[in-house]
């Protein structure tokens, strides 16, 4: 059985100007040991989908889904008490901004030991030993002394390591990394990504990498899901996605990468991601798509089969594995 | 060869960190010995990690701050407190965050007109408005955007307004401090194209500050790599990207992820983090993290040497 099974997950936010659908029909199946990347621009609902699974959304959010199971537990009707036993232990998350995600009032040692105390019921001595072990594992120098440091006394890279140590403290089955390296410099980013993939290999956990950086995706992920305006538009193996994207959005996104440029002018995607008030009727990408016609603007496209990378498009590209457009 | 519009020599900036009642004051050496020249129509990129002095350099060049040592010549005039007034219109800056750099209480038109109100007080209101509307078109915005407030625009459009505002005084040098790093990929390419177009049309010189090497590779003509406030390698884009001479540049390039899953490359793993600019290690500042460091590196500071591809390393490649 799959570790995580999500079918048709939608998240609506009640706002003063009506409901806003942030995630629309999100599907994901994860097995033990998978490394999946979720890519999309800001506002594409990639973080919200996973926050919904963790149960961390505010009360204004309405979460609906056909199926939402994690490790045999149905997360839809789960009691808060039961949920607290799962999240942070079997399913944990690394948040985007290490500087703001840690509590500034407590030492990092207290914060990491808290998780060990509540989830694993270790005694004081065991907790201390485990915390030091974790800090060593994530590459924090002088772990004994660092345990009594406050978040503001450490750099962003160190705080991110603390976040990772906290997330893996209880040996989770699923680790969700939400933009784990966006706030960091490239040399530190390389260290953190290396750390995450090596941890994944050691423990065999499933890893979800939420990011907008195509370079990070290419170097770490095995499978990629592309999100646009709350919908999953395409999902493929990383190599085939970069070689033969089926959805025009993925193709345009890849073409816009500066390193793929052949001329001084980059290919662009005109317009912006639709917001709450200008959501198009048919395909959500149609106003910005180079291949859109009348049918795209009026009829919502179906989800394609696995041979098309589940592309949500009337006219998927590279159908017969021809050269890309 | 044309005369460079900007020549900087040994720019140095230091900040004093108050030690408190009993502590000693400490000095942050944010920028040390930055020298370069920039020609009209060219782009000079400054790359490095956070804390390497990129933004300090931008603040010195735009005369937001006075450097403690060194000098620079802008368009034939040496910059100093007495010439600041005149020179400030020849160099303008675009900041990283288009959400923070525009006044939310001003309309787009007012934002564009403000530099003229302050620096060209003799200009009539109609003339100002006319120029602002021209600028709006130049940076790819629509005329109806003139009366809108910044919150009504997307990030990319705001960055267009910020670029437009910087160009209102017809500067010769534009300092771009991470102009696209806050933007999404699809918007990033639009702004990069706009910058390329404007450079061609107006013959602007860009000082392009970025940490994203793939963007730098796309826009730059020359590159300065900085580490802990010092330039460690200077050269043309082709030279820097094809043949790195400084170990730090090599490590930086190998750490940058490349969007091609078929490419498996050897990555140089740097140990440790950037030291604090308060206590810069003696000798070569990169020596504690360098895999080639010897005793000489730890005691003697290498100077930036070599033409045209200069490097500050005892054992360059």
UniProtKB/TrEMBL annotation, chain A:
GO BP terms, alphabetized: peptide transport; transmembrane transport
Domain ABC transporter: 6-254
Single GO cellular component term: plasma membrane
Spans traversing the lipid bilayer: none
Keyword Cell division recorded: no
Domain of life: Bacteria
Chief location bin: membrane
Subcellular localization: Cell inner membrane
A family per Pfam: oligo_HPY
Membrane topology of the entry: Peripheral membrane protein
Record keywords: ATP-binding, Cell membrane, Membrane, Nucleotide-binding, Transport
InterPro entries documented for this protein: AAA+_ATPase (IPR003593), ABC_Ni/Peptide_Import (IPR050388), ABC_transporter-like_ATP-bd (IPR003439), Oligopep_ABC_C (IPR013563), P-loop_NTPase (IPR027417)
One MF annotation (Gene Ontology) recorded for this entry: ATP binding
CDD domains noted in UniProt: ABC_NikE_OppD_transporters
Record family assignment: Belongs to the ABC transporter superfamily.
Protein known as: Dipeptide transport system ATP-binding protein
UniProtKB/TrEMBL annotation, chain B:
Native organism: Tropicimonas sediminicola
Pfam entry (one): oligo_HPY
Localization per record: Cell inner membrane
GO molecular function ontology, one term from the record: ATP binding
Superkingdom of the organism of origin: Bacteria
Record domain ABC transporter: where: 11-253
Gene Ontology biological-process annotations: peptide transport; transmembrane transport
Cross-referenced Gene3D superfamilies: P-loop containing nucleotide triphosphate hydrolases (3.40.50.300)
NCBIfam families listed in its UniProt record: oligo_HPY, PRK11308.1
Gene Ontology CC terms: plasma membrane
Name of the protein in question: Dipeptide transport system ATP-binding protein
Keywords of the record: ATP-binding, Nucleotide-binding, Transport
InterPro entries: AAA+_ATPase, ABC_transp_ATP-bind, ABC_transporter-like_ATP-bd, ABC_transporter-like_CS, Oligopep_ABC_C, P-loop_NTPase
Protein topology in the membrane: Peripheral membrane protein
Lineage: Bacteria, Pseudomonadati, Pseudomonadota, Alphaproteobacteria, Rhodobacterales
């Amino acid at each position: 059985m799959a570790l995580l099974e999500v079918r048709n997950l939608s998240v609506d936010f009640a706002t003063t100007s009506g409901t806003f659908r942030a995630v629309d029909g999100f599907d994901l199946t994860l097995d033990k040991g998978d490394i999946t990347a979720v890519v999309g621009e800001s506002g594409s609902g990639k973080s919200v989908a996973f926050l919904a699974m963790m149960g961390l959304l505010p009360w204004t959010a309405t979460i609906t889904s056909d199926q939402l199971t994690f490790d045999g537990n149905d997360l839809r009707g789960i009691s808060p008490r039961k949920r607290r036993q799962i999240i942070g232990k079997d399913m944990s998350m690394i948040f985007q901004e290490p500087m703001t995600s840690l509590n500034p009032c407590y030492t990092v040692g207290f914060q990491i030991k808290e998780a060990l105390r509540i989830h694993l019921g270790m005694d004081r001595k065991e907790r201390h030993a485990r915390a030091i072990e974790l800090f060593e594992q994530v590459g924090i120098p002088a772990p004994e002394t660092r345990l009594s440091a406050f978040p503001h006394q450490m750099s962003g890279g160190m705080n991110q390591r603390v976040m990772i140590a906290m997330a893996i403290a209880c040996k989770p089955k699923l680790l969700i990394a939400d933009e784990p390296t966006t706030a960091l410099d490239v040399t530190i980013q390389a260290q953190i990504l290396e750390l995450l993939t090596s941890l994944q290999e050691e423990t065999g956990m499933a890893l979800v990498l939420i990011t907008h950086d195509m370079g990070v995706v290419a170097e770490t992920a095995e499978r990629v899901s592309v999100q646009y305006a709350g919908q999953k538009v395409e999902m493929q193996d990383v190599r085939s996605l970069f070689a033969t994207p089926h959805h025009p959005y993925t193709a345009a996104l890849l073409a816009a990468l500066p390193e793929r440029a052949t001329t001084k002018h980059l290919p662009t995607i005109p317009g912006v991601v639709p917001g709450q008030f200008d959501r198009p009727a048919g395909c959500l990408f149609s106003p910005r798509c180079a291949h859109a016609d009348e049918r795209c603007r009026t009829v919502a496209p179906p989800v394609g089969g696995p041979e098309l990378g589940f592309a949500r498009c009337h006219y998927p590209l590279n159908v017969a594995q021809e050269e890309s457009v | 060869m044309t005369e460079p519009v900007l020549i900087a020599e040994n720019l140095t900036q230091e900040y004093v960190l108050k030690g408190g009642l009993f502590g000693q004051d400490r000095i942050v050496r944010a920028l040390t010995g930055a020298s370069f020249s920039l020609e009209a129509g060219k782009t000079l990129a400054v790359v490095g990690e956070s804390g390497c002095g990129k933004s300090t350099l931008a603040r010195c060049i735009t005369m937001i701050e006075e450097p403690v040592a060194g000098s620079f010549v802008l368009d034939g005039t040496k910059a100093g407190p007495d010439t600041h007034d005149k020179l400030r219109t020849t160099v303008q800056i675009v900041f990283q965050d288009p959400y923070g750099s525009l006044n939310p209480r001003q309309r787009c038109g007012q934002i564009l007109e403000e530099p003229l109100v302050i620096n060209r007080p003799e200009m009539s209101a109609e003339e100002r408005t006319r120029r602002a509307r021209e600028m709006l078109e130049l940076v790819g915005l629509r005329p109806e955007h003139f009366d809108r407030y910044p919150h009504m625009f997307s990030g990319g459009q705001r960055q267009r307004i910020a670029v437009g505002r910087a160009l209102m005084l017809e500067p010769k040098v534009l300092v771009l401090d991470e102009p696209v790093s806050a933007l999404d990929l699809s918007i990033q390419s639009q702004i990069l194209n706009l910058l390329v177009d404007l450079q061609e049309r107006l013959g602007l010189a860009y000082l392009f500050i970025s940490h994203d090497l793939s963007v730098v590779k796309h826009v730059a003509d020359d590159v300065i790599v900085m580490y802990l406030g010092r330039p460690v390698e200077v050269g043309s884009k082709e030279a820097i990207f094809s043949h790195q001479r400084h170990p730090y540049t090599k490590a930086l390039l190998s750490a940058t992820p490349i969007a091609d899953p078929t490419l498996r490359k050897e990555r140089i793993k740097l140990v440790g983090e950037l030291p604090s600019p308060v206590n810069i290690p003696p000798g070569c500042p990169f020596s504690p993290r360098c895999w080639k460091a010897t005793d000489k590196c730890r005691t003697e500071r290498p100077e930036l040497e070599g033409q045209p591809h200069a490097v500050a390393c005892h054992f360059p490649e």
